[in-house]
């Protein structure tokens, strides 16, 4: 009887220990879950950066490439060397004809060169005669006619050069050589016989109106001081 009671007490003690060791029931989750607080706004709000401008392409070049035959841009000393054969001295032929002229004609050759270059550059346009298309050639302009001299010397030198070297020597270069030679002879050598660059091209436009005193680039007449 005592043993039965003791056994009953032992069972009750064991049951109470098991009850103490059991984990507490888990708490059910709270619904809805608490919301996360947003960060406070920044004042003033930053302005968006403007888009970077797209660089414009460079404008097309309007420069015109220079032609290798542009008159006056390729002048050089000794231009006619070996252009007319080894034994043709172009400048020597011009010098020979200038030397034969009198002092007045030599002075006229210097003035001829100046008047030629003053209108349209040194292109021998002052030598051109009037024709059916142009009745007012440059040589007949008031500053030039009838006082300008030296045409005969240029014509004689040109004729000899055409016979020896056809189509090679420009009248513009002959006029330039002749003015240089005339300066040398008239000064008795005091004006140095300098090297005259050559390679000029002859012009084909000759207008007396461009020598008129009504134009901005007017030429002095022979009576001007």
Automatic annotation (TrEMBL):
Residues at the site labelled Transition state stabilizer: 111
Cofactors (names): heme b; Ca(2+)
Protein's name according to its UniProt entry: Plant heme peroxidase family profile domain-containing protein
A GO MF term: heme binding
InterPro entries (alphabetical): Haem_peroxidase (IPR002016), Haem_peroxidase_sf (IPR010255), Peroxidase_pln (IPR000823)
Species in which this protein is naturally found: Digitaria exilis
Leader sequence residues: 1-22
GO biological process, alphabetically ordered: hydrogen peroxide catabolic process; response to oxidative stress
Record family assignment: Belongs to the peroxidase family.
Active site: 115
CC per GO annotation: extracellular region
Organism phylogeny: Eukaryota, Viridiplantae, Streptophyta, Embryophyta, Tracheophyta
Membrane-traversing stretches: none
Principal location listed in the UniProt entry: secreted
Annotated region (Disordered), positions in chain: 23-73
Reaction catalysed by this enzyme: 2 a phenolic donor + H2O2 = 2 a phenolic radical donor + 2 H2O
Keyword line: Calcium, Disulfide bond, Heme, Hydrogen peroxide, Iron, Metal-binding, Oxidoreductase, Peroxidase, Signal
Entry's cofactor comment: Binds 2 calcium ions per subunit.
Disulfide bonds: 84-165, 117-122
């Amino acid at each position: 009887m005592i043993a039965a009671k003791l056994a009953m007490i032992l069972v009750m003690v064991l049951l109470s220990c098991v009850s103490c060791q059991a984990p507490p029931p888990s708490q059910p989750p709270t619904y809805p879950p608490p919301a996360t607080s947003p960060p406070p706004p920044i004042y003033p709000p930053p302005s968006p950066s403007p888009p970077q401008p797209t660089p414009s392409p460079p404008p097309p070049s309007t420069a015109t490439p220079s032609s290798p035959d542009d008159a006056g841009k390729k002048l050089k000393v000794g231009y006619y060397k070996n252009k007319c054969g080894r034994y043709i001295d172009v400048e020597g032929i011009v010098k020979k004809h200038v030397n034969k002229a009198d002092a007045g004609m030599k002075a006229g050759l210097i003035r001829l060169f100046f008047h030629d270059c003053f209108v349209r550059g040194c292109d021998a346009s002052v030598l051109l005669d009037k024709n059916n298309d142009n009745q007012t050639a440059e040589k007949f302009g008031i500053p030039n006619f009838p006082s300008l001299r030296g045409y005969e010397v240029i014509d004689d030198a040109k004729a000899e050069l055409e016979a020896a070297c056809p189509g090679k020597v420009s009248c513009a270069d002959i006029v330039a050589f002749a003015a240089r030679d005339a300066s040398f002879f008239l000064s008795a050598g005091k004006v140095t016989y300098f090297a005259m660059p050559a390679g000029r091209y002859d012009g084909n436009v000759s207008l007396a109106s461009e020598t008129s005193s009504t134009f901005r680039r007017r030429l002095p007449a022979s009576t001007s001081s």
